Amino acid sequence: MSSGWPAIMASVREGAGGPWSCPECDEFAVELGQRFVRRGVVESTLLCLACQAGADVVDP
Q1: Which of 31, 36, 37, 58 is deepest in the core (most CB within 10 A)?
Q2: CB 9 within 8 A of CB 18
Q3: Cβ distance 32 to 52 under 8 Å?
Q4: DSSP calls for 8-19
């Protein structure tokens, strides 16, 4: 599997819950945050708790 944010985003879409290894600092500290509206996820964000790098998960 490829590495980096795209690989983490793909695993989120497949239902994985993390944590993941950060592509920026290599710490095992990437967590998933989600915002819900009316029982559905409307926004997902990945954030490394070690270096604060992040990415938004965009639905296909």
Answers
A1: 31
A2: no
A3: no
A4: HHHHHHTT----
Please tell me the distance from the alpha carbon of residue 21 to that of residue 37, in angstroms, as a whole number: 29
Answer yes or no: are the C-beta atoms of 54 and 8 closer than 8 Å: no
Contact 44, 17 (CB under 8 A): no
Look at residue 2 and give its three-state secondary structure: coil
User: Tokens representing 32?
Assistant: 């998933």
Q: pTM for this one?
A: 0.78
Terminal Cα distance for the chain, rounded: 19
16-30 pLDDT, tens digit each: 888 999 999 999 999
Q: Is residue 26 left, alpha or beta, with left meaning phi > 0 and alpha meaning psi from -120 to 50?
A: left
